[in-house]
Amino acid sequence: MYDSAYFYLNQASLSPNIHTARSAYQALFYISQEEKDYKKAVEYSNKLWFYQDSIGKTDRNKALIEMQEKYDQQKIINENNLSQIKKDRIIRNVLIALIILSFIIAITNYLYQRKIVSQKQEILEKEEKIRYFTMKIHENETLINRNKMRIEELTIQMEGSQEIKEQWKEQNKIRQEIQQQNEMLKLENNKLQNHISNYAQSLKEKSKELEAMEHLSEENQYLHKREAFLCNQLINQTELFNKLKTTKYIDDQLWQEIKEKIDLLFDNYTKRLYHQIPSLTDGDIQICCLIKLRFSNGDIANMLAISPTSVSKRKLRLKERIVQEIGSLGENQSLDLWLMEY
């Protein structure tokens, strides 16, 4: 399942940039270790050593020794309590880093907007209009990218809900509405860009403040995508969630572990659901958790030992219960999208 990852990472390893090559070999090392291909892991570890030496990294002996021992022994070393504690500590540290990153972004935006307000009277009318159009374009681009992700999620969910005609029609309708919204946003962006060009022609020079704002907007979009990528990587590196992919049935003890991990990763996800929608049953929360982890109807059916049709019916009942509590899921929102973004 890592074929495409191997391909792109091997391409990246050929980069003349030693930092890029080092990161690529590090990722290849982790993937090989995950697949227990110790021979490849040792090969990638040696290359990683070379690049880490080039950039002044010296603390690497322990990883190679452990990898060499695993290669020599050719067997799985059962993780002990200490390794589990270390893994939980890594997860916690990554979460703290993500929270700090989000806080820094929020503070940066706040301080920057405050500065703009204080200088508002000094900015010419045309620059004000260019600023508004530029921000609107970036907002639209962000929404377009978000809608593309939602369309992909809906397409996947529709493949698993073909047996429930009503649910499939609803998902298809939402997908079409999102596609139409994206087309309208693209047209609006073209018009806004034309307005910006017209105003910019009459200005001798675009203000430095405007250029800084555009740069900040681009950085925020990058950081938002990076944060989402790190969250997905964290899920993929969590042993419990990887275990679910091969589990045919989830018992009560495993469910408790799943809820604890999800609450840790997604800011008390199940607790917030219980608080906002008290009528949810334990079975409802199980469905919510598996949707949050982006499992298909077929996967959910296997884990709950029911048919895919039963999964779709339970989703419909869950949606009705949620709507009764909160009134509406929102515009262009299906149950799956709402829970994934909750």
From TrEMBL:
Residues 151-220 form a coiled coil. InterPro entries: Sig_transdc_resp-reg_C-effctor. The chain crosses the membrane at residues 90-112. One of its GO terms (biological process) is regulation of DNA-templated transcription. This is Tetratricopeptide repeat protein. Keywords: Coiled coil, Membrane, Transmembrane, Transmembrane helix. It comes from Phocaeicola dorei. It comes from the Bacteria. SUPFAM superfamilies: C-terminal effector domain of the bipartite response regulators (SSF46894). One of its GO terms (molecular function) is DNA binding.
